[in-house]
Each structure stands twice: as structure tokens, then as C-alpha cells.
Amino acid sequence: MQVPDPLSKAVLEQDLKHVFTTAAQYADAVDREGRIPTEALQALRAERLLGLLVPRRFGGPELSMRAVANLCRRLSESCAATGLIFAMHHSQAAVAIGQTGDSAWHQGLMERMVGEQYLIASATTEGTTGGSIRTSTCFLDRRSDGLHLDKGGAVISYARAADVFLVSARRDGEAAASDQQLVAVMRDQLELVPHGRWNPIGMRGACTDRFDLIAHCSPDQIFEGTFAKAMSDSMLPTSHILLGSVWLGVAVAALSRARGFLRARNRSGAPLNPIANLRLAEGEALVQQMRGMLAANVALYEDGVSQASGLDRMVSYNALKVGASELVVRITDIALRICGIQGYMEEGEFYLSRHIRDAHSAAVMVNDDRILGNMSSVVLGAPLERDI
Fold first, then answer.
1. What distance in Å separates the CA atoms of residue 366 and residue 305, rounded to the nearest whole number?
2. Which of 40, 98, 191, 221 is the 20 to 30 Å CA partner of 184?
3. In what order do the strands lie in the sheet with 120-123?
4. Which residues of the chain have pLDDT under 50?
5. Distance, CA of 315 to CA of 341 (rounded, Å)
6. What global pTM score does this model have?
7. Integer Cα distance of 245 and 251 in angstroms
8. Burial (0-12, 13-18, 19+ Cβ within 10 Å), 168
9. CA distances from residue 375 to 370, 372, 382 in whole angstroms, order as listed
10. Contact 367, 374 (CB under 8 A)
11. pLDDT tens, position by position, 22-42
């Protein structure tokens, strides 16, 4: 039986009001300057919203994935970059929680995630693997003075703001490329050597730079399980669910501006525009599709007794990611068509440039073609007639 969320909706609403306001206030500056949303992250820490998934036995509130997904969506309505960081952090937190086991060091990390409000980043890519996270060249080098790790060309989001890094590597120097483990490395235990400046067209506040990562820590910080298990059990489902919630937030924010534009137009006495009203209804229908996909996948993730096979789960989570990436672009395009030239501006009450640029990041940040390529050989032999 699922334990109910200990934080009431009323308490969360009060805590989040300041966070949403702060994120929205600085969203344009974060986008314009391509910088970390420092003010919003400080607000999240102040309201103690970075340890929401941590189990109660470690001092956390143990919120459900559904509750965190809804927070990702609402935060992304205010600032998509802040919502993205919030989502990626909680996906990594879910991985750490799932892999903690009986390790005293990792149990202590759980307590500090709540007490210190650590921000967790992922360092699972490597320059030599072409972006694939399922293989590594680097390895966990156990020496007499501790664990050494040298990972070249790792793409890491919000690295300059993170407190903990979950780093993947081969089990040892003799292990196969796919025989990987995760290690939790603290900020003061590593050096990050940047390769260049982050300057994309959208999601600019995520600051997803490329680094050479050099770490020296204790072997106790290695998670016992395999990276493959952490990937299938936690990382893949939570990342796709929470990132899908981010794209939903972007879509809702864009369509809300379009609705506001039509209402203002109607109040001004302008003739009714039936085509624009039809497009608004179309956009709402697509938003409902996104909500439905997210709700189904959250239920699949949270239902521990489901009869769904591993294949069904993998296909569903990946389909959510690809589907949400496509729908957010369609919805923001609909919003732009409704708002017209006012939506095409870089400023003003109904501008949509930031939302449109952020929406297009969905398909390339964890590339949809890579996901579909990984699915292609699996679905070729899967029956299409599976029950719902």
C-alpha cells in the first residue's frame, strides 16, 4: 500500500507560491544571459523542495512520483529551465534512493540530501562513446589512497550549481564497456575542466556544458548495483516522466498566453475569430493527450504489482518521451498562430519566443532518433495487439 504524501496540498501551495513567482520573475533574464537560474534554485532550497523523494526513514517527506511530476509541470510554466533542472535533479535522486541498499555511506547521503538540500547532477555521458550512456571507456580505479576516476568529455547539466554528481564508469580496468557502476561524488572531491561555452537557442538556463571530470573519493561511495539495473529501474522511467512534465508545462504556458490573447481581443470588441478559437480547442486536445500519456506512465511506474512486462514498460516510457517531445512543438506552434505577430516578438504580454525555443530542445536533449533506434529492434517482434 502506498504511503500518503505527508505534506498537505495547502502547505505545498504556500511553499511553492514564492518559488513560482521567483522563477517567473527571472525566466527572461536566465534565457537572455544563458545562466543558471540561481534565484529560483535558492528559493527551492529555502522551501526545502530538493529532497522530496527521500524516504521518511531518512528524514525526507517521501512524496510520490505523481506529486513531483506535477510540481515539475507547474514550475516549468514559470521557467522551463528551472523546471528542467528540478526534473533532472529528482530523477537522479530517485536513482540514488533506489540504489542505496544497506550502504552506510549512501544512507548518510540520503539524510544529507534532505538536511543540506543537495542538488544532484548526472555525469553518465563520455566523449568517446558518442553520447551513449550504456557504455563507458573510463573505469573505477581502486588504489591504496582511494578511488580515482578520469572521465573525458562528460556532458553535464547545471554542473556549476550541483553538490553531488552521479558518475558512471566501468566496474574496473578489465571490465567490458557495458559493465558499469555508479558512484556518488561530492563537489569537493572532483575537478571539472570545461571544454567550451554553453550557447544553445533554448533551455539556456540548464547550462549543459562538456567537461573533463577528474575525481578522487572513497570506494564506499560506489553504489552496489549495476548501472544497467539503475537505468531500467529508476533513471529511464523517472527521467522520461519528469521531463515529459516539463514539456507539458511549456505547452500549458504557451497555450495559456494564446488564450489570454484571445480573451483580450474579445474584450477590446474585435470581431470574433472562429479559426483562432478552433486552434485553441485543438491545442487543448493535444494538451489532454500529453496529460493522458503522463498519467498512464506515472501509474505504470508507481504500480508495483502491475502485470506489465519489462517490454511494455520500456516501450511505454520511451513512447512518452518521444510523444511529449513532438506534442510540445505542435502546441507551441498553435499558440504562435493564435497570437500572430505579438507571439513572434521577443517581448510583450503575449510573446512566445522563449517557449518555442525551449520546446524544440525536447527532441534533441536525449535525442528522439536515438531512442527510436534503440526501440526499433525490440518493437519489431512485439505484438501490437497488447491489451490496455
1. 29
2. 40
3. 120-123, 164-170, 180-186, 222-226
4. 1-6
5. 40
6. 0.93
7. 10
8. buried
9. 9, 5, 10
10. no
11. 999 999 999 999 999 999 999
